[in-house]
Amino acid sequence: MKNPTIKIQKTELLSDNWYILNKVTFDYQKKDDSWITQKREVYDRGNGAAILLYNTQQKTVILTRQFRLPTYLNGNETGMMIEVCAGLLDADNPERCIIRETEEETGYRISKVKKVMETYMSPGAVTEILYLFVGEYDESMKVSDGGGVAHEEENIDVMEMPFDEAYAMIESGQMQDAKTIMLLQYAKIHNLV
Q: What is the pLDDT of residues 157-174, one digit of tens each?
């Protein structure tokens, strides 16, 4: 770490049950050159990748729907979220990860993707960098029903829908996943579909 205005004093492991939760004590130099000590909890789940699959001929996109416990605990009545395909890197590079995740979750075997941005989705508490991609698909790429892999206990519904319908879900409030909103907006701005 290269920032001379930050001095990490102590890192305490709070949990490593699913991912890593640490409490970090650090000194921070303010603009007036004085120092303050702060403590923050930091959640490290690794980095991830996500992709919007789109079909220019059919003007459709592939999305997924699955249960997300944190949203359920915070007011999402069903806990179901509509999202782009995504997954953790698991020591893979972002491009290989998203190609693997696409086949596992959606059943489409793609070989060409385009990285469009990197983002911190919740920088106040989560270390994750999310690599966002877009990629074209067509029916010839369909190799399975998708739905995720059994050993990860995934239960994913694959949804193919018109792009305009998916995009309208942003304004209606049906689309609440940030990475999905960002990728749909990217597709709209760049006239992908």
A: 999 999 999 999 999 999
What angle, rounded to 10 degrees, do the helices at 178-189 and 163-172 form? 130
Give the per-residue pLDDT at 1. Answer: 66
User: What DSSP string describes 46-105?
Assistant: --EEEEEEEETTTTEEEEEEEE-HHHHHTT-SS-EEEE-EEEE-TTS-HHHHHHHHHHHH
Cα–Cα–Cα angle for 179, 87, 94, rounded to 5 degrees: 90
Which contiguous run of DSSP H or E holds residue 184? helix 178-189
Q: How far apart are the first and last CA of the chain?
A: 42
pLDDT for 72: 96
The residues pairing with 158 across neighbouring beta strands, listed in sequence order, are 64
pLDDT tens digits for range 144-159:
989 887 777 778 999 9
